[in-house]
Design a protein that fits this description.
This protein is about 40% helix and about 25% strand. It has about 350 residues and is α/β, with parallel strands linked by helices. Helix 1 packs across helix 9, helix 3 packs parallel to helix 4 and helix 4 runs antiparallel to helix 10.
């Protein structure tokens, strides 16, 4: 197998803890260099990970060794995705970029046009749809264990004190713009495609922050499933959950912990079924901790990034658009974000 040579752009947390480990796990992949605007960080990362080249050049075309790369991953702030992706594509490189896909739908369309012109792959990191928990939920849905799906609930509680990028408040809608792609692509994945936005509203936070305190959006999926998105950015704990409400059972993904719980219909909600729900919830939750919990303690939980990278590498070798992480997937989520921001008067 001919090696796929990759340059990683951005030496921040997501590149070091997600992109690089996921790349190194793929057979026949070589990381040839790292690019970061901070020279010290690029050099130190190159030395610590034994990556041959590094650069802090603002222009990819000015990097002498960049010609050796076949593909790039982009883990920089969203403001730079458009320019970096378009330049890399113009230089004949396949591109995998972090979410959000771009800053505006027009930027996203320009990136797609650049990929089409260069005849190269442009893909997006929509990773949680490939997590252990989400795959378990999808299997149960396909096997009919939840019954007919009635509704999908996507919920995010976000503690403003947790580890956050320094630049998020410069985004339209602040933290909403940076983090909502995860819940939106999960809604698309579980609901059978991009939903129609029916209504959205937001309550502004205190002070000058661009992040709303609360945001809620209601959708109808292509399958006619009612979908609700509820975000709270002023809570004392951070939790991300997806609930799929079926006729027979409720499927729940704990996104942060990568745990899936299935609870049967509790009927009349009498004492026995209340206790049953408590026991099943507790038992499945702690049982679900056995593998992802151990990985989390070791810092090894990849949350679907391994599958994203596998699909991207295969796409680079075949030049066939990767399912679930295509540039069109990225653009559709980006358009949903902007439609929500417009409805909430956050743009």
């Amino acid at each position: 197998m001919k090696p796929l040579r990759v340059a990683v752009i951005g030496a921040g947390w997501v590149t070091l803890h997600r992109h690089i480990p996921s790349l190194l796990a793929q057979p026949g992949v070589q990381i040839v260099g790292i690019v970061d605007r901070l020279a010290d960080r690029a050099r130190e990362t190159s030395q610590s990970l034994k990556i041959k080249y590094w650069s802090n050049s603002a222009s990819l075309s000015d990097i002498p060794w960049f010609a050796e790369a076949d593909a790039v991953t982009i883990g920089t702030a969203p403001f730079s995705h458009h320019a970096l992706a378009c330049e890399a594509l113009s230089l004949g490189k396949h591109v995998l970029t972090e979410k959000p896909f771009a800053m505006t739908p027009d930027e996203g369309r320009e990136m797609i046009a650049a990929a089409r012109k260069a005849e190269r792959i442009l893909a997006i990191i929509h990773n949680f749809q490939f997590s252990r928990a989400c795959q378990h939920l999808v299997r149960d849905m396909q096997n009919g264990l939840l019954g007919d799906i009635e509704a999908i609930e996507a919920m995010q509680l976000s503690n403003p004190r947790r580890r956050l990028p320094t630049w998020y408040d410069r985004l339209p809608g602040g933290l909403f713009f940076d983090e909502s792609p995860h819940l939106l692509y999960l809604i698309r994945h579980l609901g059978g495609g991009t939903p129609d936005l029916l209504a959205a509203f937001a309550e502004k936070g205190r002070g000058a922050s661009s992040t709303p305190a609360l945001l809620s959006a209601h959708f109808a999926s292509p399958r006619g499933i009612t979908v609700r998105l509820a975000l709270n950015f002023v809570t004392p704990v951070s939790e991300w959950h997806i609930l799929v409400c079926g006729e027979k059972a409720l499927g729940c993904i704990d996104i942060f912990r990568d745990i899936y719980v299935r609870l049967p219909n509790d009927g009349l909600h009498v004492t026995s079924t209340v206790f049953r729900t408590s026991l099943l919830t507790t038992w499945q939750h702690w049982l679900g901790h056995l593998i992802p919990g151990f990985q989390h303690l070791r810092g090894g939980g990849m949350y679907g990034n391994l599958e994203v990278m596998r699909r991207f590498v295969a796409a680079c070798r075949s030049n066939v658009v990767p399912e679930g992480i295509s540039s069109q997937d990225g653009l559709e989520v980006l358009c949903l974000q902007h439609e929500i921001l417009t409805r909430c008067q956050l743009l």
